[in-house]
Design brief:
By secondary structure, the protein is an alpha/beta fold. The protein contains eleven helices and 13 strands. It has helices at 13-24, 42-46, 63-73, 87-92, 94-115, 150-169, 191-203, 224-234, 253-262, 293-298, 307-325; strands at residues 4-8, 28-33, 54-57, 77-80, 120-126, 172-178, 181-182, 210-212, 218-219, 222-223, 242-245, 251-252, 273-275. A seven-stranded parallel sheet has the order 3-2-1-4-5-6-11, sandwiched between helices. It has a two-stranded parallel sheet with strand order 7-10.
């Protein structure tokens, strides 16, 4: 029988790459998407797989619809990637963030428990749960958790619900504590894609600067295409567990700017970057980088794409996108 996988957040960056991976492995992929007058399927289209994914309408805040979908599909694996994942917005929308990220996860766990308890469940946890635990860097599965944003708090609650359902009800439920992972499919509201899109626009003379927040924040940035492989590997093990997924190397936003501008031949980027206080977090995280030795030893997983390769990949993708948008010069008829 064909293996079935159910992915919430299928239209997001991770959902698209994970769908591609699972389709390559012979899965039948079902993806949850909210009803919308303007469907947001561009990532699946860009990977050329939209027609291969079964899009199912539903909502993470509707326990009944989630239960009905799980009961109908009876998936072998469930990947919960749906989230209000923009950290900055979580201070303006803490209730929505909590409803989607925490209660949505609880609704999904209950649906699995009730209708197909043999299903293997993956929860997308986040390095943001560590907060400013940089004194314990690199962070691993035993590092104390101290969330510093409504987003991180909502994800921490979902993380512990996943652990609790594993320990209390015997569900095969794993959490992947993923550090920052980016790609050309990253949303424009995230700082990495904001930089690469801005660099492309500056290169083509469409913009003269990029407005950013804290340039000294350090993150452990990897490639999303590498990280979804770790998600799948977690659900292929004999026992459910939680794993940190990271590169083990951190870089500052300044490093990202250095590499992104260098990709278009600009060595001095400072004239093109302005710091704006509205992009500063109320509670800033100074430094995050992880230790993924457990995943490397038990899952056989290692990141393949380097930081420099990742940034260059993103810049090149945005250059191609911007070039397509440039107006075609009028044909002279003289």
């Amino acid at each position: 029988m064909t293996k079935k996988a159910f992915i919430t957040g299928v239209t997001g960056q991770d959902g698209a790459y994970l769908s591609q991976l699972l389709l390559e492995k012979g899965y039948e992929v079902y993806g949850l998407a909210r009803r919308s007058s303007t469907p947001n399927y561009w990532r699946l289209e860009e990977l050329g797989i939209l027609d291969q994914v079964h899009i199912m309408e539903g909502d993470m805040n509707d326990a009944h619809s989630l239960g009905a979908l799980i009961k109908s599909v009876k998936p072998l694996e469930v990947y919960n990637l749906a989230a209000q994942s923009f950290v900055g917005a979580s201070w303006q929308q803490p209730m929505l963030t909590t409803e989607v990220n925490t209660l949505g996860t609880l609704h999904l766990l209950n649906a699995v428990k009730l209708y197909c308890p043999e299903t293997r469940f993956y929860q997308a946890s986040t390095s943001e749960m560590y907060g400013n635990s940089h004194f314990d860097s690199p962070q691993d599965e035993l590092t104390p958790l101290h969330p510093k944003s409504p987003y991180a708090i909502s994800k921490l609650a979902a993380h512990w619900f996943t652990v609790n359902y594993r320990e209390s009800f015997g569900l095969f439920a794993c959490s992947g504590i993923l550090f920052n992972h980016e790609s050309p499919l990253r949303g424009i509201e995230f700082v990495t894609r904001k930089i690469t899109d801005g660099v492309a626009r500056i290169k083509f003379g469409l913009n003269d600067h990029i407005a950013l927040g804290n340039l000294d924040a350090k993150r452990d940035w990897g490639f999303a295409g590498d990280y979804v492989k770790a998600m799948w590997l977690m659900l292929q093990q004999d026992n459910a567990d939680d794993y940190v997924i990271s590169t083990g190397v951190n870089h500052s936003v300044r490093d990202f700017l250095d590499t992104a501008f260098a990709a278009v031949g600009i060595s001095n980027w400072e004239p093109y970057v302005r710091q704006d206080s509205k992009f500063m977090r109320p509670s800033e995280l100074n430094e995050l980088f992880g230790k993924s030795s457990k995943a490397q030893e038990k899952l056989g997983w290692k990141p393949k794409v380097s930081f420099e390769e990742l940034v260059k990949m993103m810049v090149e993708a945005d250059l191609k996108r911007i070039e397509k948008l440039k107006p075609i010069p009028a044909i002279s008829r003289t």
